[in-house]
Design brief:
The complex is a heterodimer.
Chain A (H helix, E strand, L loop, with lengths): L1 H22 L20 E6 L8 E7 L4 E16 L5 E9 L7 E9 L4 E8 L13 E3 L6 E6 L3 E7 L4 E7 L4 E6 L3 E5 L5 E6 L5 E6 L16 E2 L3 E5 L4 E6 L6 E2 L3 E2 L9 E3 L6 E3 L4 E8 L11 E6 L4 E7 L2 H4 L3 E6 L6 E6 L4 E5 L5 E5 L6 E5 L2
Antiparallel strand pairs in A: 1-2, 1-29, 2-3, 3-4, 4-5, 5-6, 7-8, 8-9, 9-10, 11-12, 12-13, 13-14, 15-16, 16-17, 17-18, 17-19, 20-22, 21-22, 22-23, 23-24, 25-26, 26-27, 27-28
Chain B lengths: L1 H17 L2 H17 L7 H11 L14 E3 L16 E2 L4 E7 L4 E7 L1 E3 L8 E3 L27 E4 L2 E5 L3
Antiparallel strand pairs in B: 1-6, 2-5, 3-4, 4-8, 5-7
Chain lengths: 384, 168
């Protein structure tokens, strides 16, 4: 009896569905298009993915922190580096291609992508000397006015190339006497980090050739407490964190680097126990003066282990103002990359070595979203 | 309408014919008996021992020589801890680590060469950083691609080669 009722109900449903389907207009033919990129959002995030398991196929993904959607991708070749132009309209990728995919003639090149379309607009072929290393802000970088692009070279002899992005040419190569990376300041200065803990600063003439060079006093001790090369942009220059948690702020607004007195992320009791560690070790909201650092408990040799907590600091008062423990198990491991948007309602982005991105309210630490697999090995993130 | 009705009815009856409460109980019984018998089966203790050895050997990231390695272990990619996989070329330039061998309680200078010419192996990723230094001290830095000076600078995997006992 019961089965008879069920059978009747099923037939009613089928009849109703058939009636509705018969009265619905067929779907219109579709047109294949290429999706235009929406206007730049306040919470756009460029996620650099080394794709370490298949390293000839790195890429930069553009993620929207408001809609939580991937908006597009920039291809990035083998062991690349990236940066953004000062106005945020262009992404520059310095990379290497092999003629036969994974082998063959090596071509080093700097590629420029229009951030309004994600199309490559032009390129500059480099000598085969590009520094193939982990991403930092200083592997390839723009001058403050966008007139020059600098590319770090390591063969392992160290030097850098000065490029003219407007005309697509290499202007010069500057020998840096063993000092590495290109830390840009002003329209025509480049500083490099030296093994002795000093900064070499080269000033260029209008043609991109060396006009002068100076060497600073050591600002850190590479033997006792090295600094990470993943610098954090500040209003006047860059901050470098040390393995033990000292903050070295460098003012690069004048002709010579000026080193502020150091301050510490850790108390005397925490020193040597808690420490910063990651592929990208900090992010600063430059207007609010809030510094976000992935911290973990560990000893010597754990400086790339990733953070189990985010510590938040007031960079004016040099004080920690929050400790946000991370749900490491849910996020797929410790945080190896951190970035913060620069707007008044900022988002904090963190990513793990397994490619899980988390989006937080950067003012409260409230977890807003977790996005799985924003990349294979997302080792740096940038906000325009 | 009628044919659909018959189809449902036939398929339900067929299912009922193929299964019964008794067959369900029989299946569960077999499963439980099998599970109870499992601990009685002979265990290859030898293979367990080899597995433990393997765990701390050259295919394990915990292996003592890998204290400052960063990359894919060539031992898992067709090579060994001191040889590159077939068809790849060793890098002539390297970074250096100092690792403690618990077996003889000596510290050794270890050269970490990369093997080059094929794309990354992708197996046994290992990132350890004892006494590792950033790029401004390149001889102690494991972030650089040390295949950089090879004719084919593509990175495949990394080996660790003892150079000698570290002087105190």
């Amino acid at each position: 009896m019961r089965s008879a009722y069920v059978r009747s109900a099923l037939w009613l449903c089928l009849l109703f569905s058939a009636h509705v389907l018969a009265d619905t207009a067929p779907l219109a033919p579709e047109h294949l298009t290429a999706q235009p990129l929406p206007p730049r959002g306040a919470h756009w995030l460029f996620v650099f993915d080394e794709a370490f398991d298949n390293e000839i196929d790195a890429r930069v993904r553009l993620f929207d922190g408001d809609s939580y959607h991937q908006l597009g991708q920039i291809d990035a070749g083998f062991s690349p580096s990236m940066n953004l132009s000062p106005d945020g309209t262009t992404t520059v990728v310095a990379t290497t291609y092999f003629a036969r995919g994974s082998r063959g003639t090596r071509t080093d090149v700097v590629e420029f992508t229009d951030n309004a379309t994600l199309a490559v607009t032009h390129e500059i072929v480099l000598p085969a000397k590009r520094a193939q290393t982990l991403p930092t802000l200083f592997n390839v970088a723009y001058s403050a006015d966008g007139h020059f692009v600098y590319a770090a070279y390591v063969t392992p002899a160290a030097s850098f190339g000065v490029l003219d992005p407007a005309h697509g040419t290499v202007l010069s190569e500057i020998d840096t006497a063993g000092c590495v990376l290109v830390i840009p300041s002003g329209p025509n200065r480049v500083s490099s980090m030296c093994e002795s803990g000093r900064l070499l600063t080269v000033t260029l003439d209008a043609q991109g050739h060396e006009a002068a060079r100076t060497m600073s006093e050591p600002f850190f001790d590479p033997d006792k407490d090295p600094v990470f090369v993943q610098g954090i942009q500040t209003p006047q220059g860059y901050a470098f964190l040390s393995f033990l948690g000292e903050v070295h702020e460098i003012d690069l607004s004048g002709p010579q680097p000026a080193f502020a007195p150091t301050w510490s992320l850790v108390s005397a009791a925490e020193r040597g126990q808690w420490r910063p560690g990651a592929e990208q070790v900090g992010a600063l909201h430059r207007t609010l003066g809030r510094l976000y650092v992935p911290m973990h408990k560990g000893g010597e040799g754990t400086h790339k282990d990733g953070g189990t907590e985010i510590w938040v600091f007031d960079t004016t008062r040099h004080e920690r103002i929050a400790r946000w423990p991370l749900q490491v198990a849910n996020l797929g491991g410790p945080v190896v990359t951190v970035q913060v948007s620069q707007d008044p309602a900022p988002l904090l982005f963190t990513a793990t070595g397994k490619g899980t991105l988390a989006v937080f309210d950067a003012l409260t630490g409230h977890l807003k979203h977790v996005e799985q697999h924003v990349g294979q090995t997302p080792w740096m993130m940038m906000t325009p | 309408m009628r044919s659909l009705d018959r189809l449902f009815e036939n398929s339900t009856r067929a299912l009922a014919r193929r299964s019964s409460r008794r067959s369900l109980l029989a299946g569960l019984g077999q499963l439980l008996t099998g599970a109870a018998l499992l601990p009685l089966l002979p265990v290859d203790r030898g293979s367990r021992a080899r597995a433990d050895e393997h765990k701390s050997g050259p295919e394990s990231c915990d292996y003592w020589k890998y204290c400052a390695i960063d990359g894919f272990l060539c031992s898992c990619c067709g090579g060994t801890s001191t040889s590159c996989p077939p068809g790849t070329q060793p890098s002539p330039i390297t970074w250096i680590g100092t690792c403690h061998n618990p077996a003889d309680r000596r510290d050794y200078i270890v050269s970490y060469n990369d093997c080059c010419g094929k794309t990354s192996c992708g197996s046994c990723e290992c990132n350890r950083n004892e006494r590792e230094k950033p790029m401004y001290r390149p001889s102690r830095n494991n972030d650089l691609n040390w295949c950089m000076a090879n004719a084919d600078s593509n990175y495949h995997c990394s080996v660790s080669v003892i150079l000698g006992v570290a002087e105190k």
